[in-house]
Amino acid sequence: MAAKANGKEKVVLAYSGGLDTSVMVKWLQLEKGLDVVAICGNVGQESQDLGWVEQKAYDMGAMYSQAIDMRSEYAEKILTKAIAANGMYEDTYPLLSALSRPLIVKHLVDIAHKTGASYIAHGCTGKGNDQVRFETCIHALDPSIKILAPVREWDLHTREEEMEWAAAHDVPVPTTAAKPYSIDDNLWGRAIECGVLEDPWNEPPEDIWTMTASPEEAPDEPEEIVVGFEAGKPVSLNGKPMALLPLIVQMNKVCGKHGIGRIDMIEDRVVGIKSHECYECPASLTLIKMHHSLETMCLDGDTLKYKHMVDQQWSTTVYDGLWFSQLKQALDAFVQNTQKFVTGEVKAKLYKGSATVTGVKSAYSLYEYSLATYGEGDTFDRTASKGFIDIHSLPVKTWSGKQGPSAKGVSEKSDTQAQRLSA
């Protein structure tokens, strides 16, 4: 398409169909004089049928609207990397929102190129992380595209003001009462904030959870699952080969049934504030835990220790919206190299809110029974230990004699001189 239609420039809008982005479809036309291309990305939201989103945008005057199914691409190109890197921000949160944004932005930029759009618009607030992620990814993929963030610009400061504006401009909005929480969800889990959760002393109410049973009300009998991995990627569940998308969907159901995956944390946002966040991540938490257990068998100790630092940096880099960056590419290269032999099966017991790894096996295991056993078949050479300890402890032995607790050198002389001067 040409850059302009009927003399108007185009804007590609990241569109969800909710109140904010629905108002934006009309606002961008009236206040900015732009033709709107409304794009909704399906990355595994609870609402799977997004056809209504397309039609709603058309009804409000969008020149083009599409709901794109990105679920398989999300699983295969994004979540595989997250699993390989044991992606857990602040060692707690499996990055569900931060992971979906780069893929959505990639599609928005591609569509902007195809339609000749000069602008991309998003519905992120001026206080959260997602504005940073959307705009940083856009800048990385095409610095020439101009960005619009209506929520940071318009004078609609409350939901009531938005509703009034919508009514005055024939924008259809939900007729039900506003939800007390802000929700973002995708295949990797759900993020819940606002409402009573803004006070960290409040225990999260039971009604915020939709993917997980209360651990107290979960089944009284544990359930065992076995996940197979090839080169760090989950490829089977209970012996049945599965693509990653259906495997994650099934894991969400099975682990959620047992109350697994609830997170309640104080989180450090990119914009410099702490936030009380709740997450519901049954499949993601369990898969990352099982994957890491397999790594402990297949990677040597030095690589495991160094990879833990890399995993933390990878998670922070992704959380900060730097998916398309030189550092992220370098971290991916390291992580990918470590996964060549992370192949095997991991067994876990699911029971009342916990997933406990109960078994690990791999054809590439670095665990040698003959070296580890204290029983018959032990091949470890104990006579080598004395010489090893002598060499290993030589630096600390030398230090102790010269500077450590047994030293009688400079520090003792200094104390004696100080005593004489005080006398």
TrEMBL record:
CDD domains: ASS (cd01999)
Domain Arginosuccinate synthase C-terminal: 181-398
Entry-linked InterPro entries: Arginosuc_syn_C (IPR048268), Arginosuc_syn_N (IPR048267), Arginosuc_synth (IPR001518), Arginosuc_synth_CS (IPR018223), Arginosuc_synth_type_1_subfam (IPR023434), AS_cat/multimer_dom_body (IPR024074), Rossmann-like_a/b/a_fold (IPR014729)
GO biological-process terms attached to the record: argininosuccinate metabolic process; L-arginine biosynthetic process; urea cycle
Assigned EC number: 6.3.4.5
Binding site for ATP: 14-22, 123
SUPFAM superfamilies per UniProt: Adenine nucleotide alpha hydrolases-like, Argininosuccinate synthetase, C-terminal domain
Region entry Disordered, spans: 399-423
Gene Ontology MF term list: argininosuccinate synthase activity; ATP binding
Residues noted as binding L-aspartate in the record, renumbered to the chain: 125, 129-130
Chief localization: cytoplasm
Cross-referenced PROSITE patterns: ARGININOSUCCIN_SYN_1 (PS00564), ARGININOSUCCIN_SYN_2 (PS00565)
Ranges for domain Arginosuccinate synthase-like N-terminal: 10-172
Protein name (database record): Argininosuccinate synthase
Organism, scientific name: Olsenella porci
Organism ancestry: Bacteria, Bacillati, Actinomycetota, Coriobacteriia, Coriobacteriales
